[in-house]
Amino acid sequence: MNKRYEALLALKTQEESAKDIIDRIEKLFKSEGAEVEQVQRLERRELSYEHDHQKSAYFVNIIFSAEPALIDKLRSKLKLDDDVAFQNYLVLSKKAAAPAA
Prior knowledge:
The structure is a single chain. This protein is of the alpha+beta class. The chain has helices at residues 15-31, 69-79; strands at residues 3-11, 35-51, 54-66, 84-91. The protein has one domain (3-91): Ribosomal protein S6/Translation elongation factor EF1B (Alpha-Beta Plaits), CATH 3.30.70.60. It is built from 2 helices and 4 strands, in the order E-H-E-E-H-E. It has a 4-stranded antiparallel sheet, covered by helices on one side. The longest helix has 17 residues, at 15-31. The radius of gyration is 15 Å and the shape is globular.
């Protein structure tokens, strides 16, 4: 059964090349069987602490539906991607039904 997830990715890139990297990551999600609902391109932000010699990162939020087993697969593949500084996944609650009148 598919669940809805939110992936927060921090990219080691400049804003100019972020679009190509985001498109590549979105294709990866889709090729692995995830149904991407929304891609939110956030902005480059300073990190509160230096991570892998990075002082800032470009953040992307991806909302998608997938089988729970896919999360480990995505995590493993993106861990090997040099453009991804770090990643975090959250399970989203089901969409709330409209209240009855």
